[in-house]
Design brief:
single chain; mainly alpha; Serine Threonine Protein Phosphatase 5, Tetratricopeptide repeat; about 65% helix
């Protein structure tokens, strides 16, 4: 259980590539160690000493990262870590602010208090912390954390999150989740770019959920998605991603939220794509158009037979068919 919580907390460490604090070597040395398949305790102890020295002379980023050693890296001592994270948060480290917001929002290391969570999310958002901006966007979209639903504000926050240099991984031209038109569909009609958008959207959503240690591979996943040169490659990535997400036990609410995020940018829902027989159907939906007679037949058959299609996917399919018929 301790190791599980370390990996969940570790995700928050990866939340931004840098902070406006005294720059040191702590982060640069610690990050590669955490991305290794097996932790090297000897090297971790050496880096821990360096981080402690940098924190001692006022490096707030090192202070925040030093807390990780008390959260499962070398020991499990939240009582030691929490004051360190609080001190870094108060001094303006966005990662620390997000960590406190997340814990007040979902726990279990801090008492649930959504009002306090909102204030810390807002503080982290001021630092352009992507995960904080995404959580705020969701809150304003659904009226969570005590805020009044405001779709315009939610859209603005999503756009800021998409453009932010903050976040797990590195910005890539296909990453912005609020701007579906950033990638042109491929001219071959295979739907390669469409499936890339779907995969990136799912990866980005999972970053906000922070329920599984594999989230620290977001940078590698998005790079692999971007590098895919064939429909077969991206289909393989998509199938593995969907199967993995389906295996980690998302709650019904989380699945509904993911479906909503995908539907908001006219992409097929996760509920649809998790069923293997629906994936070709979903690829056509993602592409936004019917490319040939075979695709038209496939959509019509799915609509006619139902296949337990989520309503949003059925509606999108019906619009594509109607548009195709109107052009013909």
């Amino acid at each position: 259980m301790t190791r599980i919580w370390f990996w969940i907390l570790f995700l928050i460490f990866l939340a931004v590539p840098g902070t406006p604090a005294v720059a040191g070597e702590c982060r640069a040395l610690l990050r590669p160690l955490l991305l290794q398949a097996e932790l090297d305790n000897m090297r971790l102890r050496a880096v821990r000493e360096l981080c402690a020295d940098e924190a001692e002379v006022g490096d707030l980023d090192a202070l925040y990262q030093s807390a990780l050693f008390h959260l499962g890296l070398l020991e499990w001592s939240p009582d030691a870590a929490i004051p360190m994270i609080r001190a870094a948060a108060v001094q303006g480290v966005p990662e620390a602010q997000y960590w406190r917001a997340w814990q007040y929002d979902e726990g279990p290391l801090l008492p649930n208090d959504r009002g306090v969570a909102l204030r810390w999310y807002e503080a982290a958002g001021e630092g352009e912390h992507r995960l904080a901006l995404q959580r705020l966007a969701t809150a304003y979209r659904h009226g969570e954390l005590g805020v009044v639903p405001d779709m315009r504000k939610a859209a603005m926050l999503r756009a800021r999150a998409a453009l932010s240099e903050s976040g797990i991984g590195v910005r890539h031209p296909i990453l912005p989740i609020a701007m579906r038109d950033d990638i042109d569909d491929d001219s071959t009609g295979t739907g390669l770019a469409a499936l890339q958008r779907f995969c990136v959207q799912v990866v980005r959503f999972m970053s906000t959920v922070a329920t599984d240690p594999h989230l620290h591979f977001e940078q590698q996943l998005t790079s692999e998605i971007a590098a895919a040169e064939s429909l077969e490659d991206v289909t393989r990535i998509m199938a593995g991603l969907v199967d993995w997400v389906g295996s980690i036990g998302l709650t019904t609410v989380q699945i509904e939220r993911l479906d909503g995020e995908l539907g908001a940018v006219a992409l097929p829902t996760f509920s649809l794509m998790r069923v293997a027989r629906n994936r070709n159907f979903g690829r056509i939906l993602a592409s936004g158009e019917i490319g040939n007679a075979a695709e038209s037949l496939l959509l019509r058959q799915h609509i006619a037979t139902g296949h337990d299609l989520p309503a949003v996917d059925a509606e999108l399919a019906a619009r594509l068919v109607a548009g195709h018929d109107a052009r013909d």
